[in-house]
Design goal:
Layout lengths: L2 E9 L8 E11 L7 E8 L2 E8 L5 E9 L1 H10 L2 E13 L2 E8 L7 E6 L13 E4 L8 H6 L7
């Protein structure tokens, strides 16, 4: 089984921007409703289409499967079959031997900025960058699928 081990944090400031070495615009939507056994996401990352299935579980570790699909088909599915469209730009930052993914959300989820790090094990040590804020790995509201249903702008 493919397992993703990922920790998610808020971003405290913009100091990460100077270290970003790449970025990609992303647009995605969901084929399965929030509350199903899995999130089923269709995404276009720049010019690449992807189908992603993740266990609908809150926490650091969960089953994940991802497949590349034709971008044209991904765009068609997003436009005709998906709900809860998420728009964001993902920036890549190397720090302390790890690759951080910084998601800058757009539209109804702006000005939310979230940093994610994938690890080899749940207890793997990593260096915390100075721009890293509070951990939100166990807060369902910050998961993309939840944001697609209840956007950041609607939070109290």
């Amino acid at each position: 089984m493919a397992i993703e081990i990922e920790r998610k944090f808020l971003v405290a400031n913009d100091l990460w921007r100077a270290a970003a070495h790449a970025s990609v615009p992303m647009r995605h939507g969901y084929l399965a409703p929030l509350g199903a056994a899995a999130s089923v996401r269709v995404r276009v990352e720049g010019t690449v289409g992807k189908l992603n299935i993740k266990a609908a579980k809150v926490g650091i570790s969960r089953a994940e499967y991802e497949y590349e699909i034709p971008a044209v088909e991904a765009e068609e599915m997003i436009s005709t079959l998906c709900t809860g469209i998420i728009l964001k730009t993902r920036y890549y930052v190397k720090h302390g031997g790890h690759l951080w993914e910084i998601d800058v959300f757009e539209g109804d989820n702006a000005p939310l900025v979230v940093a994610e790090i994938e690890l080899a094990s749940e207890d793997e040590a990593f260096e915390r960058p100075e721009w890293l804020g509070r951990e939100v790995s166990d807060d369902r509201r910050y998961y993309n699928h939840a944001l697609s249903v209840t956007p950041y702008k609607n939070w109290e």
